[in-house]
What we know:
Blueprint: E1 2-6, H1 17-25, E2 28-31, E3 49-52, H2 58-70, E4 75-79, H3 90-99, E5 103-106, H4 111-119, E6 132-136, H5 149-153, E7 158-162, H6 168-178, E8 185-190, E9 198-203, H7 207-213, E10 220-224, H8 259-262
Parallel strand pairs: 1-4, 1-5, 2-3, 2-4, 6-7
Antiparallel strand pairs: 7-10, 8-9, 8-10
Amino acid sequence: MIHFVGAGPGAKDLITVRGLKLLKEADIIIYAGSLVNPRLLEDAKEGCRIFNSAHMTLEEVLEVMEEGERSGRMTVRLHTGDPCLYGAVREQMDILDAKGIVYDSCPGVSSFCGAAAALNLEYTLPGISQSVVITRMEGRTPVPEKESIASFAEHGATMVLFLSAGLLAELTEQLLRGGYQEDTPAAVVYKATWPEEKSWLCTVGTLVETARRHGVDRTALIIVGDAAAQSGYERSRLYDPEFTTGYREGNGTGKEPCAGCRKGLCEERLHKDECIRGKC
Length: 280
């Protein structure tokens, strides 16, 4: 059996309980050595054969998997973050399907979640952004024409960019062309959740300068959008005492909350025709 396992964003203790269990049971581990924290390999059992796929081709990786199957061994293919994002797993799975080799997937914590944790950031803020675009700049690997950075920027949603820290000048040009302004909030998060994690808030216009000043040109996520400022958002209706949900009855008058109430700015939590403090 072959298990594709998400190693998490970097910190050793952010692999899932299921992923760690599989890692400890594996007879063979093939790990993405360019990105996976090697400390995770400390949990491999004695006698486990370990391969670093950073030095291997797809064909060599599959050869190790096949050999493991022939000898009745259990293999863990350890990918960074969650394998479903930029993990190049589909090409491996298709070949395994063709050969009749059974496999499954164990999800992991993606680095875009780790980056949010580094900033104590909520990507989806009411009234600001309710969508997150996960994408990357075109480099040696092409991006479909309809998925250009500029076309996504037209939506004004929160954007998280993988594999783009070395292309920030081009990225900035694309973001501005698509509709973001130079003062649009942004952030650079280097090695999210690793011991050497660092993060910096900036703007679209200062992305290049921020990365250059701190010597960052790889292993970093770029976050773009008004959500990065974590301000100006509306209060969640889910926890509003006047809002009825499927689990509790609201105590309000039934009137629509004023804009100030929704944004948490109305000190008295009053309504449109009752707001007396002018906070709305």
